[in-house]
Amino acid sequence: MTPDSRPALPRFVKLRFDRARDTWLLLAPERILIPDEIAVEVLKLCDGKATLAAIAATLAARYDAPEPEILSDVTAMLADLEAKGFLRDREAA
Amino acid sequence: MTELSARLRPDPARSHGIPIAVLAEITHRCPLQCPYCSNPVELERASAELSTEEWLRVLGEIADLGVLQLHFSGGEPLARRDLETLVARAAALDLYTNLITSAVTLTEARLDALAHAGLDHVQISVQSVEDALATRIGGLRGALERKRAAAAWVRARDLPLTLNAVMHRQNLHELPEMIEMALDLGAARLEVANVQYYGWALRNRAALMPTPDQIDTASKVVDAARARLHGRLVIDYVEPDYYAARPKPCMGGWGRQVFNISPSGKVLPCHAAESIAGLSFDSVRDHSLAWIWDHSKVMNRYRGTDWMPEPCRSCAHKHDDWGGCRCQAAALLGDGGATDPACAFSPRHAEVFEAALAFSEGSDRYTYRDFSGGTPEPGG
């Protein structure tokens, strides 16, 4: 993951709000993860079009937070998901 | 991010919560005759199967319950011509869909239709890495070649693939090659599943039971492969019960997270539960799933911890293993309510180990799974 990456969820990984449990879930093969509030905000922006830099800028503006720190936090989070196969970089693909 | 299952800790006020997953065994028909099949020895006929309309209604009830994952299984789920219709409905209901298949009857056209219907994941079973042994175990010539082709079609459509390798005395020596095959076929996950002895496998224990040496070697092979393939291949290892010291937390606890629906609509706490004598199961033909999940006698029979005998009742691990496996207690001790004898704390544990040793020296001859109650392998 670099600032130019365009992260996206693969077709078989699904971010959805589960009414029965009143929580957001990330559904993947044989795995169900509970993303925290920040992760949900980040993942909603991962549409395969926005770059990682643009996503960080959006979040920095939304939360009035320093952009370099947001970029570094978001990069770490998405790289971890990418390593697990739950996220892809459209730019690289 | 936390795993959902990790957050489902026992709530003292409730014996069960919202189920996570359902195993839909939509048919018992199958082109293979594997001697370790987990289906009951008494298979349900096609004429007893739920109709398409019944399944469409049941899928709605499954989603309403809050279920997240739906595993289409069997028998061979592809034997039902309406599988695409069922997958499409499940996908429309936001269920995460998995196809558990032998893949020997899969075609590219059918896979396209299933992918189009919204299928999320495919799990293919393999019997052996050798054509001759695969044919002998499954009873179908050319099965391995068809599975290899099917795996390639799955990957070509960017569907995630799990390989399920059922391991036993007669194929455990192939484990290193099995791991290589999973990599070759582009699987993201490999289930190395030691046979669990219910249903047909119970009947074939003498032909399937591994030796202690085989299990020692297998554990080492899996450990080494996990370290070497980290980030490339996830390997799930199902321990062989008869040689274990701790019981498996079967189904994550009876009636707690998952349930099974049989071809004719019986709702079971696990796929082997019919092997426990004296239980009678409720059907989706007679009750709503919501009622069955909360109120069915069978679902509540071994739920939570109140049913437990000693040593389980005062055991520190009772919320981790939920007393182990009820089907195993029934199969080995004749009492579904006994402590799982796979547990070292069971007073009967030593017997299980001794029995395993005896079975591991048994005849290699199989009894094949079929609708006539089983057919012995010719020759021998």
Q: Structural class, judged by helices and strands of chain A?
A: alpha+beta
Please, what is the average pLDDT of chain A? Answer: 92
Task: Name the quaternary structure.
Answer: heterodimer
Approximate helicity band of chain B = 25-40%
Radius of gyration of chain A: 13 Å
| DSSP summary: helix tally of chain A | 3
What is the mean pLDDT of chain B?
94
Principal-axes geometry of chain B comes out as globular
Helix-strand makeup class of chain B: alpha/beta
Using only C-alpha atoms, the radius of gyration of chain B works out to: 20 Å
- Mind describing the biggest β-sheet of chain B? 9 strands, mixed
Uncertain segments of chain B are none
How would you explain this protein's 3D organization?
The complex is a heterodimer of chains A (93) and B (380). Chain A has 93 residues and is of the alpha+beta class. Helices cover 41% and strands 20% of the residues of chain A. In chain A, a hairpin with a 2-residue loop joins strand 3 and strand 4. The radius of gyration of chain A is 13 Å and the shape is globular. The termini of chain A are close together. Chain B has 380 residues and is α/β, with parallel strands linked by helices. Chain B contains 15 helices and twelve strands. In chain B, the strands form two sheets. In chain B, strands 8-7-6-5-4-3-2-9-10 form a nine-stranded mixed sheet. A two-stranded antiparallel ribbon of chain B has the order 11-12. In chain B, helix 2 (52-65) links the parallel strand 2 and strand 3 (69-73). The longest helix of chain B has 17 residues, at 212-228. Chain A binds chain B through residues 10-12, 14, 16, 18-21, 25-27, 29-36, 39, 83, 85, and chain B through 1-5, 7, 18, 20, 65-66, 68-69, 94, 96, 98, 120-121, 158-160, 162, 188-189, 231.
